[in-house]
Amino acid sequence: MGTNGSTVLEPLRQGLPPIDPGAVSTSASCALPARYEAVRGARKFTSATLDRWELSERFDDVALVVSELVTNALRHAVPADASQDEGQNPPVRLHLMRWSSRLVCAVRDPSQESPEARDGEEDFAAESGRGLFLVDSFSDSWGWHPLAGTLRGKVVWALFRVGPE
């Protein structure tokens, strides 16, 4: 079962708190075009998915984090010429995974560069560089890992506690 979801999920488990893999109740993913309008699409996808999972009360925090992760992927990880071949292999993909008491949003992108907060090199008031600070502030934990096997790139993920503790 070498689907994209399981490829993304497998190394994710290494960085997450101990969670029984069998307790994953559901997951959803969508490909995003290499254009900034993709952020709006990611938010709509997140909203529809959280509604389906009866987690709409978490939309504000999750959507903010999804927006930041997708924006970072588009701004820093997608090559300038990516839109020409995105039909075959979209450069950015959003995964939402639900456990009984955890929700993970993960964004896959083609870069193997580690995500890092910017400091000093850009105007401190600029939007750029605040993304990972916001991700850290609004999620319970976050991290990243390079993709294994034949897939190039990395996954940046954020975890949210949901439901009964």
Protein described:
With about 160 residues, the protein is of the alpha+beta class. The protein is built from four helices and five strands. It has helices at about 5-15, 40-50, 60-75, 130-140, and strands at about 25-30, 90-100, 100-110, 140-145, 155-160. Strands 1-2-3-5-4 form a five-stranded antiparallel beta sheet, sandwiched between helices. Helix 2 (about 40-50) runs antiparallel to helix 3 (about 60-75). It starts with a helix and ends with a strand.
Summary tags:
alpha+beta, disordered N terminus
Short description:
The chain is of the alpha+beta class and 165 residues long. The chain has 4 helices and 5 strands; from the N terminus they run αβααββαββ.
Topology:
Blueprint: H1 4-15, E1 26-32, H2 38-52, H3 59-77, E2 92-98, E3 102-109, H4 131-138, E4 141-146, E5 154-161
Antiparallel strand pairs: 1-2, 2-3, 3-5, 4-5
The percentage helix is: 25-40%
Give the termini distance in whole angstroms. Answer: 31 Å
The class by helix and strand makeup works out as alpha+beta
| Mean of pLDDT | 78
Radius of gyration: 15 Å
Number of strands: 5
Specify the number of helices. Answer: 4
